[in-house]
């Protein structure tokens, strides 16, 4: 069967923008390229606009369009509109608002968006007085806002062009807890919170995931935790919501050796009913991170690891999973990651055992019978 010939456009051009909308343009009788004053949701709408322009040119009704000036909007006003238009989780919205108010708007807020140059961005970035993580987050947010301004045709190009500015080099690597240290830490926690230590470690849970676990999320027969929600605190409010990404909603297999402890905790410490919390605060509500940290700090001291934080439990579990031979895809699924970047961090940490492996190989050599064939 003969292939259908592709028709070639003879008037104007249409291109799809990163936003998914379509932009139409054509070269007029004045030999100047003219772009539609707005973008279009569907390609056929862009086709219709080009058709009308072509009819005007061929009918001698064409007049050079007036040059449309980009709106004179400040970074402050545009960032507010940008934030309002985004469907964000409450904690993310709060974080973006903090970055804007603390790090971006005090310096760049009064500038017109079209007046923000690469040089202005470099100067702002160089003078940011904050830690490396906040600096990277602030830059990434500004770059996203300016990227939308490009799509809105307020500016022609994104002025955020600093290479590597969104990457953060960890100031110090987290040393995972050993199995013995996990045992000591759990033993020094209050009885109602002892299970959160091995469960968070062996299942690599985020704090918000562990603090929102309820009886109905524990399937003892299948041996899994069904992670479907997390709890965060934003603006003084306790907010229970779905995970930020689809990958965060997942089933996590509980190592079989831990199931007896889970059963005991459900019997002795979890709240009553299907919606009963596994871990809760003194007043019965969701456990606050500050409360867990207060107990955890003392327990970590007793284990001789004052450097550990509750988040180190998730890191420990991720490294344990990587050491068990989990592939990158399996690690991403267990941790609820959408990109390989973070999972690779844990795989690299697991690779740090190379010296131990080399020593173990030498130990095998030392036990080889004399006269064994090489």
Q: Which CATH first-tier class of the largest domain would you pick?
A: Mainly Alpha
Largest sheet: 3 strands, antiparallel
The tally of structural domains comes to 3
Mean pLDDT: 85
What does this structure look like?
This protein is mainly α. It has three domains: 13-58, no CATH class; 75-151; 184-355, Orthogonal Bundle (hpI Integrase, Chain A). Helices cover 44% and strands 9% of the residues. The protein has 14 helices and eight strands. The strands form three sheets. The protein has a three-stranded antiparallel sheet, covered by helices on one side. A three-stranded antiparallel sheet has the order 4-5-8, with no helix packed on it. Helix 3 packs across helix 5 and helix 11 packs across helix 13.
Considering the chains and any ligands shown, give keywords for the structure.
374 residues; mainly alpha; hpI Integrase, Chain A; 3 domains; 3-stranded antiparallel β-sheet; elongated; disordered N terminus
Give a brief rundown of this model.
This protein has 374 residues and is mainly alpha-helical.
Question: Which helices and strands appear, and what pairs or packs with what?
Answer:
Layout: E1 13-16, E2 22-27, E3 33-35, H1 43-58, H2 75-84, H3 90-108, H4 118-126, H5 132-151, H6 179-187, H7 196-202, H8 207-211, E4 218-219, E5 224-227, E6 230-234, E7 237-241, E8 250-253, H9 259-268, H10 289-302, H11 311-323, H12 328-335, H13 340-351, H14 354-366
Antiparallel strand pairs: 1-2, 2-3, 4-5, 5-8, 6-7
